[in-house]
Write a structure and sequence with these properties.
This protein is mainly α. It has 18 helices and 9 strands. The protein has helices at residues 50-58, 70-90, 95-109, 128-145, 158-162, 168-204, 224-245, 269-281, 291-296, 299-325, 355-379, 389-413, 422-430, 440-443, 445-458, 462-468, 474-480, 483-486; strands spanning 3-4, 30-35, 38-43, 209-214, 217-223, 251-252, 286-287, 336-337, 419-420. The longest helix has 37 residues, at 168-204.
Length: 504
């Protein structure tokens, strides 16, 4: 791209495409666009313009265009569409231009032209390049649709018309919040399906007894169903936190323009555009009470980031448990079997690794790291604007997308196919000294401790040792160490006799 001096400006005579010799089939064709800094040759196939071109030169950082987040592109189109409707209604934008803008936005929302949103996800300027990219693409879509050459901005201008009554500083955070609403909705749906999958496994394994563990040491018996039901419960708690966060994203600062004073916007604009945004999205958007504060505040992003980190870390803990419980298959816990998904080694034949829980672990690590980034970016803002919202947006939209994908693959490729290794579980429970805990109220801690030690030394069954010691009948001991009693499913309904100290 070559930047020409400002004097190289071209005078537009707004030619209609059908009135000129078209060069648009030539992949090397360019058009000249000019701003206050000079002129640049723009590829004629591009719907973006000079401001986008400068961003491409200035921010060759991430190698990831904003179009990697379709929710953000659709959100930008919706915000511009709401603005066009509001501007038409209050009489500050010609109805024809408003209609053109709205039609272009509808095409973007339908999935067209996303590849024209090319600026990098990491950019200076508080999102100005993203807003400029949107303005230029929308303007050029409308121009071409109505027979004008791209860049005929005297017919429809990216800033004077598409950006009317707006600033990057109210458009960008509103679009980012809206994109997060879409993404969070999708995550919640996947999160709920994963929760239901764990709950179903809880029901399937409801009567499968196993040894519980604390600090990786044998503890007391429980059921495998209780363990999986616990996973479902913790996911339910996180789902509720997400639902409570969603309405916080509905507060917008459209109408604030540059810093919250509403300069260049009609006094009626803020309320009008908010109403149109509600109609377009179905969300209960509200205009912030203090637009100056709202324009610089990044608190909601930290809240969302914290909720995502909490959910990710707890999900990662569950994945750690799944990897432990399925470890082996011969020299590990081997209590459950994860679905085999792919070969686990290029050197060890037959090895199968828990690759799906592993990838979700890595998603959690990335989400935790993104939370640090969001925190630092929120703290780094100064005065009336936070310039670092692009990295906040990238961090959170990536976390939302990765969490959604992680929940889906964990459910479909792992949890739904988990089976219990029944024989191994039965063997471990029957030889576990943990069952002696259930007898402690009846025979006392000292006697129970002696039995536990004997069981460990001889590898014998606890029930046999209790009967041999004539501490209680086999019928009694088997009742007390039944799966239902050991796991707490069947409550103790009778009084426990007081253990009398031995007579000296």
């Amino acid at each position: 791209m070559t930047i020409s001096p400002a004097s190289a400006e071209r005078t537009h005579n707004t030619p209609r495409l059908d009135d000129e010799a078209s060069t648009h089939d030539d992949p090397g064709a360019t058009r000249l666009e000019t701003d206050s800094l000079g002129s640049i040759e723009i590829p004629d196939a591009a719907y973006w313009g000079i401001h986008t071109a400068r961003a491409l030169e200035n921010f060759p950082i991430s190698r990831r265009p904003i179009s990697v987040y379709p929710d953000l592109i659709n959100a930008l189109a919706i915000v511009k569409q709401a603005a066009a409707r509001a501007n038409r209604e209050i009489g500050v934008l010609d109805a024809r231009k408003a209609d053109w803008i709205e039609a272009a936005c509808e095409r973007i929302r339908a999935g067209d032209f996303h590849d024209q949103f090319v600026v990098g996800v990491i950019q200076g300027g508080a999102g100005t390049s993203t807003n400029m990219n949107a303005n230029e693409v929308i303007a050029n879509i409308a121009l071409v649709e109505h027979g004008y050459a791209k860049g005929s901005y005297d017919v429809l201008h990216p800033l004077d018309d598409v950006n009317r009554s707006q600033s990057t500083n109210d458009v960008y955070p509103t679009a980012v919040k809206l994109a997060m609403c879409f993404s969070l909705d999708r995550l919640m749906a996947e999160h709920e399906l994963l929760r239901d999958s764990f709950a179903e496994k809880g029901r399937e394994f409801a009567h499968v007894l196993k040894v519980g563990r604390t600090q990786l040491q044998d503890a007391v018996p429980m059921t495998l169903g209780q363990e999986f039901h616990g996973f479902a419960t913790t996911l339910t708690e996180d789902l509720e936190r997400m639902r409570h966060t969603l309405p916080l994203l509905w507060e917008i600062n459209l109408g604030a323009t540059a810093i919250g004073t509403g300069i260049t916007a009609d006094p009626a604009y803020a309320a009008t555009v908010c109403r149109h945004l509600r109609e377009l999205t179905g969300f209960e958007h509200v205009t912030a009470a203090d637009l100056v504060e709202a324009t610089s505040d990044a608190g909601v992003f930290m809240t969302l980031s914290g909720v995502l980190k909490r959910s990710a870390i707890k999900l990662s803990k569950i994945c750690n448990d799944l990897r432990l419980l399925s470890s082996g298959p011969q020299a590990g816990f081997g209590e459950i079997n994860l679905p085999p998904r792919q070969a686990g080694s290029s050197i060890m034949p037959g090895k199968v690794n828990p690759v799906v829980p592993e990838v979700v672990n890595q998603v959690a690590f990335a989400v935790a790291g993104a939370d640090v980034t969001v925190t630092m970016a929120a703290e780094g803002g100064q005065l009336q604007l936070n310039a670092f919202e692009p990295v906040i947006a990238h961090s959170l939209l990536q976390s939302l997308a990765w969490m959604t994908g992680g929940c889906r693959t964990l459910r479909v490729n792992c949890v739904d196919g988990i089976t219990a290794n029944l024989d191994r579980l039965d063997t471990m429970v029957s030889s576990s000294v943990g069952v002696v805990t259930a007898l402690t109220p009846y025979i006392g801690y000292a006697a129970a401790s002696a039995l536990a030690k004997a069981a460990l030394l001889t590898h014998r069954n606890i029930a046999d040792l209790v009967v041999e010691a004539e501490l209680m009948s086999r019928e009694r001991v088997m009742k007390l160490i039944s799966p239902a009693r050991l796991s707490g499913i069947e409550a103790i309904t009778s009084s426990i006799p007081i253990i009398e100290p031995p007579v000296s």
